[in-house]
Amino acid sequence: MTESTRKAAIGTVIDNDAIKRRFGRLTIQLAGEAARRFSHVTPGQFAQIRLSEAALPQPDRIPDNIADSARRQILLRRPFSFCDVTVESPTEVHIGILYCVLGPATLRMTTLASGNQISIIGPLGNGFSVPAGKKLALLVAGGMGAPPLQHLARVLKSNFAEVEVVAFAGAKTLGDLPFTEQGLDKKGSAIAEFAGFCAQSHVATDDGSAGFRGFVTDCVRRWFRKNKPAAAEVIIYSCGPEPMLAETAKLAGERGIDCQVSMERMMACGIGLCQSCAVACKSGWGKTEYKLCCKDGPVFDSKDVVFLQK
Ligand SMILES: Cc1cc2nc3c(=O)[nH]c(=O)nc-3n(C[C@H](O)[C@H](O)[C@H](O)COP(=O)(O)OP(=O)(O)OC[C@H]3O[C@@H](n4cnc5c(N)ncnc54)[C@H](O)[C@@H]3O)c2cc1C
Ligand code: FES
User: Fold this and answer.
1) Is residue 25 within 6 Å of ligand 1 at its C-beta?
2) Beta carbons within 8 Å of 252's beta carbon, 6+ residues apart
3) Count of domains in the chain?
4) pLDDT for 27-74, tens place per residue?
5) How far does residue 10's CA lie from ligand 1's centre (Å)?
6) Phi, psi dihedrals of residue 175, rounded to the nearest 5°
7) How many A from CA of 79 to the centre of ligand 1?
8) Do 103 and 195 belong together in one domain?
9) Ligand 2 pocket, 263 CB below 6 A?
């Protein structure tokens, strides 16, 4: 991270589209020096966004489950990954943020409108990388783990033509998938948001309301029963809840396949100062050392992580 990535940039909101209940997609335009900085985002990196000045929605638009916390003051910036980064020109970049309304900050995000200005620090952290010799990338997303993998799918398609991409996205129910329902194929088993960039995409829901019934990791295991790629040529990229990441790491380990996971932690500063985002990692001699999710991650080699929630 350089000094300049810690400097807040002011972006301008171009669009804020509701995808469906609880989910939206924000497009922010960055110009000048900020555009230059954000034109080099690696998928999996993130930005710290200030939402304290965004307005609260009308009371009838505040979900009951966050009615009490909605008015809380928002002191800290919030971390968001990028679902898309488009370089329009050397001095204009558009970044896409796919968000889910969970609490006061993401609730305020829904009121941002075209022309609003927004303060962003980034790009921060370390994103996904593509080791030499890989010919197949499996993307495994759980719930709101989808955005950085959508960005990764685009980058693989444009910069790594030799790598075939297969995407898996899971959630508890169809309503919890952060995609438009119109974008799912008739059986609800393929995703338009990934389709243009992947050879195949697969949906899994715990209750079977779309695609495969069961955990997304079971959908991946089923795929491996039908497909036998050479382990050394495959890499798995995963983002989502920690138990899902732990299971993905396990199924990759069983097959000797490289796997990178994007970890999520509560982040106060996002730049390595507050120590609030520790990730337990293996060090030599069976010991554990703590790394910082914001600075050393959020993407880690799955073999290095000691998963806390399995
Ligand atoms: C690297 C990174 C990338 C992220 N990318 C996205 C993204 O692309 N889209 C998106 O919608 N969200 C993303 N998030 C999560 C997002 O930062 C939180 O949803 C947001 O901060 C919630 O703020 P809030 O005030 O609305 O809710 P809060 O009231 O702060 O939180 C609501 C609930 O979510 C839990 N929560 C909040 N933040 C986290 C966290 N970081 N880890 C685990 N649990 C958390 C809280 O414990 C609480 O239960 C990302 C988080 C990280 C660390
Ligand atoms: S969020 Fe402050 S050190 Fe990581």
Assistant:
1) no
2) 236, 258, 259, 302
3) 2
4) 999 999 999 999 999 999 999 999 999 999 998 888 888 888 888 888
5) 21
6) -65, -20
7) 7
8) no
9) no
